[in-house]
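**Protein of interest**
===
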Amino acid sequence: MKIANFALAAIAAATLAACGNSQQSAGQDASATTPAASGKVVRIGSANPLTGPFAHWGRDADNGVKLAVDEANAEGVTLNGEKATFEVVSEDDQADPKTATQVAQRFLDNGVVAVVGHLTSGAAIPASRIYSDAGIPMVAGSVTSPKFTQQGYNNTFRIIANDLQQGQALAKFAVSELKMKNIAIIDDRTTYGQGLADDFAKAVEAAGGTIVKREYTTNTATDFMAILTSLKAAKPELLFYGGMDAQAGPLVKQMRKLGMTTRFMGADGVNTAEFAKLAGTAAEGAYASSAGASKELMPGFAAFNDKYKAKFGSEIQAYAPYTYDAAKVLIDAMKRAGSADPKKFLPEISKTQLQGVTGPIAFESNGDVKNGTVTLYQLQGGTWKGVIPAANVAASAAQ
């Protein structure tokens, strides 16, 4: 079938508010890009879960940063009259808030001048305070919690839509288009999962739907039978999960094992090939969002995809285009400032006007990307495809 893209291309947060060589430190990825030429070494931190259940996301995001840095080094950049060689310092934050703050401190100790990351909201928010205190710019390619840019820091930016936008789009689609009135919710109690579920619940009720049951789990759980048995008695038409694919996959399989025909919906944490693999045929027909444009609508995706495959020999998971653009934003700001001194190039980030792989990039005063986009998908034949119709939901979500 022809893929139709559900792009909410003009949902801004304001509209809606009214998802030498460096020394290797503990936990640092040994595959980090190493400078091969003399001159000024500019270290950019890349913070992601590189081990554990979210490593497939983290490696993907880290690869995006590395590709951007490789291109900058091939281009040749001069800062303050001196040739600059960019280096990626990759650290494993394990998607854990405490570990993330330790990673942030290691970045400072290693002379990192800017950070792309962290991958998850739960890791990014506590780490952002450390970067703010040190005056280190932070551009996130996957952090979707609204709280990230509500802290009042002048150093935090994101190039992806937030969970308020995702929650409203998903809820509008569930109630207005799918005609689901009785909805159950499970979240994993993380900053990302709980915040997304809260936003979704509010939007469901505002659209005229009813939350018949709400349950909680963790981001390490594997057995959901007790929770699902409780939900089954409430007879929901749709189950929304706020969390990641590592739990969503087994959850859907167990839901079908219990004989539940309830439709399943998640957000960008579920919109992955890994979810389809973990859930198998039980996932068929599931819905999920992406806090960004679909690949078909990304103006630079085709060329980026070819470069990514050539360098890493693997398929893009989700956020590599966004972290690639995030690194490009940082390097572009340094070039315009003529300096890798954070005090000099941080003010330039807010002035960004860049055509990225993911689309045009400019920032609101709080660091949110302007005109954040949300895309909705359905899993069909094991592949995520854009859902239709889009126009009615796009219009109602913008009201």
Notes: Residues 220 and 247 are 7 Å apart (CA to CA). The mean pLDDT is 87.
